[in-house]
Amino acid sequence: MSCFRGSLLAFIAFTFYCLASFSIEPVDRVNPFIGSANYGTTNPGPVLPNGMMSVSPFNVMGSELNKFDKDKQWWSTPYTSENKFFTGYSHVNLSGVGCPELGSLLLMATAGDLNVNYEEYGSEYINEVASPGYYSNLLTKYNIKTEVSATTRTSIARFTFPEGEANILLNLGEGLTNESGAWMRRVSDTEVEGMKMLGTFCYNPDAVFPIYFVMRVNKVPVTAGYWKMQREMGVEAQWDSTSATRKLYTRYNRDIAGDDIGAYFTYSLEQGETIEVQIGVSFVSTENARMNLDAEQKGFDFDLVRNSAHDEWNKALSKVAVSGGTDEQQTVFYTGLYHALIHPNILNDVNGEYPMMEGDEILSTENDRYTVFSLWDTYRNVHQLLTLLYPEIQLDMVRSMIDMYKESGWLPRWELYSRETLTMEGDPAIPVIVDSWMKGLRDFDVETAYEAMYKSATTPGKDNFIRPDIDDYLSKGYIPLKAEFDNSVSHALEYYIADNALSKFAKALGKDDDARRFYNQSLNYKRYYSSEYGAFRPILPNGEFLVPFNPKQGENFEPVPGFHEGSSWNYSFMVPHDVDGLIKMHGGKRKFVNRLQEVFIDGHYDPTNEPNIGYPFLFSYIKGEEWRTQKLTQELLAKHFRNSPDGLPGNDDTGTMSTWALFSMMGFYPDDATDPSYTFTTPVFDKVILNLDDFHYNGHTIEIETVRPSADAIYIDKIEIDGKPFRNFRISHDVLIKADKITFYLKER
Questions:
Q1: What are phi and psi of 614, to 5 degrees?
Q2: CA distances from 29 to 322, 332, 337 (A)
Q3: What are the backbone angles phi and psi of residue 357, rounded to the nearest 5°?
Q4: Is residue 7 over pLDDT 70?
Q5: What is the pTM of this model?
């Protein structure tokens, strides 16, 4: 018996060991290809959570094999799964955005004779593999296996070659940016350094900045040199054969500069031999790029970087543990969390230095300084997610925004590498900072934050960088339409939201007069309501409504008076701070519900458009209509969020659309950016565990359990918190973070 017992215990131990060895962790659920089609504009390349460095396969130029080409249409991403022609790896990229920028420093490996024309050296590829922190493919033209990974501020590539001549190319002439110009210097046989100009994001020619880099190869080449695209010459071409060609510099090794330059390293290799390439970047200097590289990579060790990236992602994603649902739903969920943690990005180097906001000085920080604040998008849900699950990161983001005010005189709207792009509208830093403060993140310069908000909310238009059209808003309560396709209504609606948040901040700080003023201003949205159409309608300078008017105009990015990237339908319920007033304005609860339901019945809802992404949750403000929220969120998740390249409804907008799915799948959503609360909906999973921060939330764990009697039971019958009935469909942040267990009991309708 003892022998049998010992064997049985050994067998059980071995079984558990095997199960543990093959257990699926959160990082294993991520599919980085989600969103790489259908204009999701994500890419499958490696990046660390909120990392400065990101690496993307670049396949959007150079061949008729591609469906989309950056030079033939408006295109804003370095990669799409619908293309076939690879021209290298771009370094430092944006995820989910709608304007082209960055995506430069193109690193390519080729075999055979040296060729520096990307239309000719590019290759088709197969065997794509991607996971958080890693990407690989096989270049069919050369039979070269390519692999890339990243640290916070650096990258590493590994190329496995066939026998013969091999080349490593660094192309500084191409990328997504519309800015041109670069320089480079050879430091040694295995290292180059340089700078590439970037900028002009989303129509702003002044939002320009440099990126500095250091690149190293791990083997001394047989030969090395530069190339530069020469201008097309006139009569001089009789004496210069390089006119309008990419001239090779084979014996020149000092500095080189130009709009289209590059460096090459050529080798003679055995079958299966590898070359590793490191790139460190900085937005301060080449010296700092080298410092970042030395600090984050001690020598060449591709597998070490890859494994570290995998572990760091798994740690970040493990803030949430889900069980139940389908494998596809779990993949959609964890990929959404992955996408939500790409931006904003760390801007400072390892020594704390970073470029001053809207200035030329180099400053230093003791905390992390962040950049890429797509606030018109992210103020609606991304920052609420960070506040809940990653509060220390969110706190540093708040500090970053306040420091931007100290440096430039204004809070950011859509900041990119210390330049204000003035993209989109509103004053979105206000609700982000106020929401963080209301949820207990208060270790920042509160008085300066209020000063900054007050300045943008009151300064006359001629001197107001953030709200240049504020004069009519202050004197009339609305912004009239002054140009055929201006965004006057959109601007005012965003100001109302910001002012409502500011009024709550003022009230909390004891500034009662300011609180009343900003609160009253925030209710002027009613000026735009047209009872004839049951929708918001532009107002002319004479105070009359625009005629003719079509509330559908603006769908599919059609030009429209008064609204930005959307129709009146997409904006007419965007009053999260006064839903009760919105209901009364529509003539009561029944008329409001019917009108709001019409948005979904008639196809006016746009799942890719931020102003209306909170619409499904408005039904839950009316007793007895909460089921509509629950039904809609289930339908929208199933229709628009899938485990496939086209599994996002459109631009991810630096994680905003992914975060909509994340919250909806967990069963609660922050639909009012001016209030520290969430609206409940039906969770997708049987169980969700939120592992909260040790410092801010004492390491508290929240369990969300769903009791689902059948697959058709998608409606909430009742909710219990810690075993006690909870008779509301909205929950405050304070109650949420103190709950041990929230239980949803579902039913069929």
A1: -90, -5
A2: 11, 8, 11
A3: -65, 125
A4: no
A5: 0.95
